[in-house]
Amino acid sequence: MKKILVPTDFSANAANAVDYAVAIAEKSDAEIILLNALAIVDTTFASRKAVFEEYNNALAKDMSDQLKNLQESIVKKTTVKITTRFFKESIADAILKCAVEEDVSLIVMGTRGSSGVEKMLWGSTTASIIGNTTIPILAIPKGAEWKGLKNILFATRHFEADDKILRPILNLAQLEAALVHVAAFTDTDGNDLAGYLEHGRLLNAYQQTLPTKYKDVQFKTQHLEGKEFEDTIEQYIKEHDVDMLVMTTHKRSFWDSIFNRSMTKSMADHINIPLLAIPVD
């Protein structure tokens, strides 16, 4: 892991993301890039352009100053190299552009409002980034605090074997010798016996393959079943003191099948730990 990109709006949630990024960078010898962006306000009225330009310049200076102050405050607490980037465009466009220009390995973002997998993934900015990048994104929910990584839960339905997909999980697990729980979920409301048996077969094969291929990481496989994905995952997280949830985002129909079953339920009360979203080409 070479570079970690951390977008910030100087909020408490963004500060949580910075804390996580610094902890990861300290253990992986990575560099942190703090990013802030200003969407320029414009007008079609020529007589008012000077006013708008003055407003934009003043706001840009204020935000640039805040970014520099944040950089200086972090440098006082860590030996991690901290650099900054400021863009005059939308935050989503700025993140995507900077990620490519800087060749970052990970994007760490704080999430607004209530925590929860659905809010993390489908919040406007985060969803936009996930849908347009192949860089892993670590979404940090409101109130989360870095307490180390001892247990990582990888919830899968595709039993990914590509090293490019698994590598971000393994890199994080190796920071503190975390146990990687690999779980497959089967919906018991579906009455799909064939699907249940197939998940069991694939999970068993996964259990044999992963430890052989990745000898430096500990794995534990679990076949989860229940009526609601969120409830089942939440219960497992509580029972096993999971520090981070990992999912891939290569099949929107899969996500839809999960979330559409519980549209009336708030995800805020379910998942309140960081979520690592790994986009797949």
What key attributes describe this structure?
alpha/beta, Rossmann fold, 10 strands
Write a structural description.
With 281 residues, this protein is α/β, with parallel strands linked by helices. It has one domain: Rossmann fold (3-Layer(aba) Sandwich), CATH 3.40.50.12370. The chain has helices at 12-28, 49-75, 91-102, 117-122, 124-130, 163-175, 193-213, 229-240, 252-259, and strands spanning 3-7, 31-37, 82-87, 106-110, 137-140, 151-156, 179-187, 218-226, 244-248, 275-278. The chain has a 10-stranded mixed beta sheet with strand order 3-2-1-4-5-10-9-6-7-8, sandwiched between helices. β9, α9 and β10 form a beta-alpha-beta unit. α3 packs parallel to α5 (124-130). The protein is elongated. The model is unreliable at 113-122 and 257-269 (pLDDT under 50).
CATH class: Alpha Beta
Helix-strand string: EHEHEHEHHEEHEHEHEHE
- What fraction strand? 15-25%
Report the CATH topology name.
Rossmann fold
| Sequence stretches where pLDDT stays below 50 over 5 or more residues | 113-122, 257-269
